[in-house]
Amino acid sequence: MHSGVLNTNQIMRQVIYALALGIIASYYFFGWGIVFQIVLGVATAIVVESAFLRIRKLPIKPAISDGSAVLSAILLAISIPSIAPWWIVVVGVSFAIVFGKQLYGGLGNNPFNPAMLGYAFLLISYPLQMTTWASEFLSFSQGFDVFFNLSSIDGLSGATRLDDVKTQLSLGYLVHELQIYSISQSLISIGFLLGGLYLIARGIIFWHIPVAFMLGILTTSILLFISDSQLYVPPQFHLISGGTMLGVFFIATDPVSASTTPKGRLVYGFLIGVLIVVIRVFGGYPDSVAFAVLLMNMTVPLIDTYTQPKVFGR
Amino acid sequence: MPNQLGFDGGVVIPNPYPVEKVEIIQAPLPNQVVLPLQQRVGDQAIPCVKVGDRVLTGQEIATTKDSFCVPVHASVSGTVIAINEQVIPHKSGIKSTCITIESDGKDEWVKNPGCGPDFLHCDTSTMIEYIRISGIVGLGGAGFPTHTKVARAQDCHTLIINGTECEPGVMCDDALMQYYPREVIRGVEILLHICGASRAIIAVENDKQEAFNSLLMYNHNERISIVHIPTKYTSGAEKLLIKALLGVEVPSGGFAPDLGVVCQNVATTKAIFDAVVESKPLVSRIVTVTGSGVEKPNNFEVRLGSSFDHVIAMSQPNKRSHDIRMGGMMMGVDVKDGKVPICKITNGIFVNDQSKKPAAQECIRCGACNQVCPVSLLPQQLYWYAKSENTDKAMDYNLADCIECRCCDYVCPSHIPLAEYFSFAKALHRKTTDDQYRTDIARERFEFREYRLERNKQERTEMMAAKKEELKKKMANDKAQKNKVAAAMARVKKSKKASDDA
After folding, report:
1. B14 interface with A at CB cutoff 8 Å
2. Does the residue B362 lie in any domain?
3. What is the mean pLDDT of chain B?
4. Phi-psi region of B65 (alpha: psi -120 to 50; beta: other; left: phi over 0)
5. B121 shares its domain with B231
């Protein structure tokens, strides 16, 4: 007896398909790096998860085929710079699967988003590799050489626009003096936005978190922008920069680690948005989706407790 | 009446095995019937016939004094051939005492008392008694004794007649409304008379146009209205139906009569008509036979106590092996085989080809379940606590309000049998509170005993002390007396001596 709507495996697969547009856009601008990251990330996830399931004496096939480990690996692989060396993704994915998921008891039991836990771990441990991004399209052989440390990344890399703007502002430049928009970043963001809208249309994710998330970003950044439009970048910059769109539709909406009540989802999403802007503007790291999500993951039990719906007859 | 009839949640499930036209086929008399004495609630009825007795159709064969139980009637005429333990349709496959009657094929009826067509001259208590002696229980599936329900629903202002068909796939109420609209309407009038309600609402789902029309055609009573409600699963649940029709919620832990409302199923209403007007006790019911294992899903009017197989055989079952389920696809119970008897609450029989259930996966907290929960619970949280047997926390999340409708199961992408966890957690909670209660009682008793012993001891000491004091006083008194006596004696002696000297 079942409604005939998607099962858990199909849900995971649909989310993976929805990522395609953003990944293709990223490939279009920065080349083969992202492909290598994803392939090695997924392979690592499967190996590590299988090994851990074996240690836990659990059946391997059903857990691998649910697609959750693969999805986490892809999310992490596309979050890290495409020109990061191969061991970054291996270390990150292993950490995500082992410490983010399996140690808590596997799918459904992890309080934190595994991909973001892996990302935060990498960013803190290897800040250099994690903040050096490709600045142009890399061919297969270029990408291959960079990925396996066979050639230097000099001349192919740079900071992201988000990072750049932050540095310039801290050096005393004003917003109107900066080049704040980047065509590649905008198009990649649109790719993830479309994928996210597809998921909402298919009923795989609910609208609450994305909408509240974007509202949180807009409210905070508009307030800052109104207070001083030369010190603080315009709100739309926050929406299209860094991992915002990926975070809105694919990270914050991870059901396992998100709030699960309808009202709670609004609170959860909104506060992630607020935190992202606050950390980007006042914090030490250029991008902050991972930290904002992880911080809010911690508050989920509290949010869920205080946002229970009114029960029939009570 | 609110414009928007409905309630939150629930799922729309089309009839999985639709038929072109809803019919009722009269099932032939069975060769033998097995009538369980234990019904849904209350005590077991006590047999008042012996093995070898000849009984007539409609004759009382087991009786009871419990208000949560009803008498059992012979559903065919014939001979009692056994009174023993047999498997009854129950999810645990338990056995219960049953009376087996071998039919003589004559179907001779016993003459019972009744009010006749002009029932308005009968008083309420007489009618309730007729309902009781006819063995009527809620035929929607709950099986609660109707006489007790109506007796407790005096002073209600609204009578709701549930014609919603509780579950997708079951068609027996739809068929009954189409075939017996006159009886249903007359039954409603009897209920109005008994309950003193000012109005009655017959709720019919909007996919049952024929049933709606036939009721409309026979309804000439302005106190009775017939309304369409959206076709959605769980709208047949009493409290949700009240919400859908009247826009009010029965308070948690409360009952419909608290709001001045009483609900009855259409089939029960017809049975009340049969009992009060036609003087016929409840000896048959309409059963839907459907499922992937039968070629021709249909409704059968069948004598109670016939085996499931008796009606399944008439729906052209295929040759494969089947899983048999009593009730609906959602809330029904799987039974062992088709040999179990049809009882008063058997509204449907699902005969499904055996299939492998998909294995349950981990909960990913997607929240599909809380979207469909008709009572707005958070099944994903309840599951978490039920699984870890943390019943206190589950109760905080209002586990007690779960109606076990299985809407959450139906939409769960991980195929988790959520309602089973909840029913288990409820039982566990009952047991823990029960154990706790017993421990509390035992401890109180012990403490009271200690206190009593202590008090006795103290009282005794006090008593002893008081007695001692008294004794002392007495002794002191005695001493004083003695002294007095001695003094007197001395005086006497002295005076005597003085006189002797003189």
Report:
1. no
2. no
3. 89
4. alpha
5. yes
Q: Is the pLDDT of residue B196 over 70?
A: yes
CATH of the domain at B144: 3.40.50.11540
The pLDDT > 70 percentage for chain B reads 99
Residue-wise pLDDT tens digits, B229-287: 988 888 888 899 999 999 899 998 888 888 999 999 999 999 999 999 999 999 999 99
**For B401, which of A1, A108, A313 is closest by C-beta distance?**
A313
pLDDT at B5: 62
In a domain, B489, yes or no: no
Instruction: Count how many pairs of residues, chain A against chain B, have C-beta atoms within 8 Å.
Output: 100
Q: Does the interface predicted TM-score (ipTM) exceed 0.90?
A: no
Among B430, B463, B484, give the residue marking a domain's end.
B430
Residue B357 lies in a domain: no
Domain closes at, from B314, B348, B382: B348
Closest by CA position to B415, among listed A260, A10, A2, A59: A2
Q: Counting Cβ atoms within 10 Å, is residue B476 exposed (0-12), middle (13-18) or buried (19+)? A: exposed
* B356 Cβ under 8 Å from any chain A Cβ: no
Find which of A58, A254, A312, A314 to mutate to test the B interface (most B CBs within 10 Å of its CB). A312
Total number of domains in chain B = 2
Same domain, B393 and B339: no
**Closest CB from B11, B330, B401 relative to A312:** B401
Q: Could you tell me the residue range of the domain that residue B122 belongs to?
A: 24-348
Per-residue confidence (pLDDT) for residue B1, from 0 to 100: 37
| Same domain, yes or no: B233 and B335 | yes
Largest CA distance in chain A: 69
Same domain, B343 and B375: no
Query: Are the CB atoms for B306 and B187 separated by under 8 Å?
Result: no
Task: Based on the fold, state whether residues B305 and B393 are members of the same structural domain.
Answer: no
List beta partners, residue B102. Answer: B32, B79
Judge residue B182's burial from the number of C-beta atoms within 10 Å of its C-beta, 0-12 exposed, 13-18 middle, 19 or more buried.
middle
Q: How far is CA B8 from CA A305, A306, A312, B1, B406, in A?
A: 21, 21, 9, 17, 15
Residue B360 at interface with chain A, using a CB cutoff of 8 Å: no
Q: Which residues pair with A133 in a beta bridge?
A: A158
For residue B355, tell me if it sits in a domain.
no
Neighbouring CB atoms inside 10 A of A23's CB total 20
- On whether any CB of chain B is under 8 Å from the CB of A49, the answer is no
